[in-house]
């Protein structure tokens, strides 16, 4: 049986998803404050890393990376509602790309599995 | 088994070992993060040898063309000479062969490098005044068309380098310059691609180079060039560009003046971010080059991206100004 990453479409799917996802994030008033004013190309690269991870692709992110990388945002008020919004936008992106509902659920599960690290709980 | 050459040392690789892993094993402090070919923080440059395709996956075509690769995804099968991506401390002498004003505050500086100087139109070089003081300037010339390098130097209030170049440097003097870098340049292969180029102030320098380069390489698609300036007299290549647009049917040139002045008929234009959308009606079909004032470049980049242009189709060079 093929892996989640293979079913979604691997690196090509990450490339296809990242622009769509980032546009949604920048448009969404619940979360765009946390993404505005930073270098857009750097952001795109980080988001590719994020998408690769939640698509079940190869990555070496550790819980410590997640904690360090989001500490300054938690200090600015990042909480569960923002993670919920990101998971929702992620789902909408994948739906647009025609990914099956079960696979979207699996992606959401991976995203939720790093929630506590991201929020430094 | 093969090897890499780094820092003038030959380092043997294990079967299937990455460049990043062998350098870290040898105690070199190479920036890295995801180690999965995604975050791009371990980017390095190959100067000799063959780069495995996987090591350039996801990189912009302009970076690939310069031999940049990701060390974590690079498992060479033949010897490869590599260097850190920012390793540019090579300086070479160039002679000033032209020193004329293009407007009241923009100097056209022409330089003849004393040794081979490889560059792509649109890249930038650094000029060194002292061992510690350098500033970056974009190249306005095209290697295949011009014998000399051309730079457009705006006088920055209290700018140490620009005042020196304007007031003290003269024809015949020698300057120290650095190898060209930057990933804002024309990549051949898509002759029908629609191109939008927008620049403010001396952001026009790299853009005119890119336009002339594209046309010389046989570009057939529409090329739209916008020069955004504060005052009418800042349109320092106005007539040249009007003439070029007359000569090449694929080229359109627009000026965008922010402040209306009393003694000219020029009216205040609509904002640049509106003008670019009026031109690139379906942004997803276009590629864009944006150069000049960092805040404006970033606004234009966001405007185009949010309107549907792929981030990978936007090349930008935001100028960071220091005194």
Key structural traits:
heterodimer, A: 121 residues, mainly alpha, Globin-like, 7 helices, 70% helix, globular, B: 323 residues, alpha/beta, Ubiquitin-like (UB roll), Elongation Factor Tu (Ef-tu), domain 3, Rossmann fold, 3 domains, six-stranded antiparallel beta sheet, five-stranded mixed beta sheet
How does this structure look, described?
The complex is a heterodimer of chains A (about 120) and B (about 325). Chain A has helices at about 5-10, 10-25, 40-55, 65-75, 80-95, 100-115, 115-120. With about 120 residues, chain A is mainly alpha-helical. Chain A has a single domain (about 5-120), classed as Orthogonal Bundle (Globin-like). In chain A, α2 (about 10-25) crosses α5 and α5 (about 80-95) packs antiparallel against α6. The mean pLDDT of chain A is about 90. Chain B has about 325 residues and is of the alpha/beta class. In chain B, about 20% of the residues lie in helices and about 30% in strands. Chain B contains seven helices and 16 strands. Chain B has helices at about 20-25, 60-65, 160-165, 205-215, 240-245, 270-280, 295-305; strands spanning about 5, 10, 45-50, 70, 80-85, 90-100, 105-115, 125-130, 135-140, 150-155, 175, 195-200, 225-230, 250-255, 285-295, 315-320. In chain B, strands 9-8-11-6-7-10 form a six-stranded antiparallel beta sheet. A five-stranded mixed beta sheet of chain B has the order 2-1-5-3-4. The longest helix of chain B has 13 residues, at about 205-215. Chain B is globular. Classes of the chains: A mainly alpha (about 120), B alpha/beta (about 325). The interface of A and B includes residues 27, 49, 52, 60 and 61 of A.
Topology:
The complex is a heterodimer of chains A (121) and B (323).
Chain A: H1 4-8, H2 10-27, H3 40-54, H4 63-75, H5 80-96, H6 101-113, H7 115-118
Helix pairs in contact in A: 2-3, 2-5, 5-6
Chain B: E1 3-6, E2 9-12, H1 19-25, E3 43-48, H2 61-65, E4 68-70, E5 80-84, E6 92-101, E7 106-113, E8 124-128, E9 134-138, E10 149-154, H3 160-167, E11 174-177, E12 194-200, H4 204-216, E13 223-229, H5 238-247, E14 251-257, H6 272-279, E15 286-293, H7 294-306, E16 314-319
Parallel strand pairs in B: 1-5, 12-13, 12-15, 13-14, 15-16
Antiparallel strand pairs in B: 1-2, 3-4, 3-5, 6-7, 6-11, 7-10, 8-9, 8-11
Helix pairs in contact in B: 6-7
């Amino acid at each position: 049986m093929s892996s989640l990453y293979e079913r979604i479409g691997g690196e090509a799917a990450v490339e296809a998803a990242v622009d769509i996802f980032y546009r949604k994030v920048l448009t969404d008033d619940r979360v765009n404050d946390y993404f505005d004013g930073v270098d857009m190309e750097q952001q795109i690269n980080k988001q590719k890393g994020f998408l690769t991870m939640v698509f079940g692709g190869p990555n070496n992110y550790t819980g410590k990376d997640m904690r360090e990388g989001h500490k300054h945002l938690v200090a600015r008020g990042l909480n569960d509602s923002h993670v919920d919004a990101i998971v929702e936008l992620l789902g909408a992106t994948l739906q647009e790309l025609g990914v099956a509902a079960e696979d979207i659920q699996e992606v959401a599960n991976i995203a939720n599995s790093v929630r506590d690290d991201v929020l430094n709980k | 088994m093969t090897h890499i050459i780094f820092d003038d040392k030959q380092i043997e690789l294990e079967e299937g070992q990455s460049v990043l892993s062998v350098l870290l094993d040898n105690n070199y402090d190479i920036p890295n993060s995801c180690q999965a070919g995604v975050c791009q923080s371990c980017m390095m440059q190959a100067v000799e040898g063959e780069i495995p395709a996987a090591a350039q996956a996801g990189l912009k075509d302009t970076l690939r063309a310069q031999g940049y690769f990701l060390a974590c995804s690079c498992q060479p099968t033949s010897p490869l000479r590599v260097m850190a991506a920012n390793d540019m401390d090579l300086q070479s002498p160039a002679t000033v062969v032209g020193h004329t004003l293009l407007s009241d505050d923009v100097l056209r500086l022409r330089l003849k490098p004393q040794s081979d100087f490889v560059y792509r139109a649109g890249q930038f070089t650094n000029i060194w005044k002292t061992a510690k003081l350098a500033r970056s300037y974009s190249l306005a010339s095209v290697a295949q068309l011009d014998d000399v390098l051309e730079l457009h130097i705006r006088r920055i209030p209290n700018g140490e380098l620009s005042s020196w170049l304007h007031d003290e440097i003269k024809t015949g003097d020698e300057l120290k310059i650095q190898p060209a870098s930057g990933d804002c340049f024309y990549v051949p292969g898509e002759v029908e691609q629609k191109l939008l180029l927008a620049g403010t102030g001396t952001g026009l320098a790299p853009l005119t180079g890119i336009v002339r380069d594209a046309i010389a390489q046989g570009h057939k698609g529409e090329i739209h060039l916008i020069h955004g300036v504060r005052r009418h007299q800042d349109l320092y290549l106005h007539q040249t560009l009007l003439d070029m647009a007359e000569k090449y049917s694929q080229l359109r040139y627009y000026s965008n003046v922010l402040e209306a002045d009393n003694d000219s008929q020029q009216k205040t234009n609509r904002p640049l971010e509106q003008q670019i959308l009026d031109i690139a009606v379906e942004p997803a079909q276009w590629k864009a080059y944006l150069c000049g004032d960092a805040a404006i470049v970033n606004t234009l980049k966001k405007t185009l991206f949010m309107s549907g242009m792929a981030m990978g189709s936007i090349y930008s060079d935001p100028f960071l100004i220091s005194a």
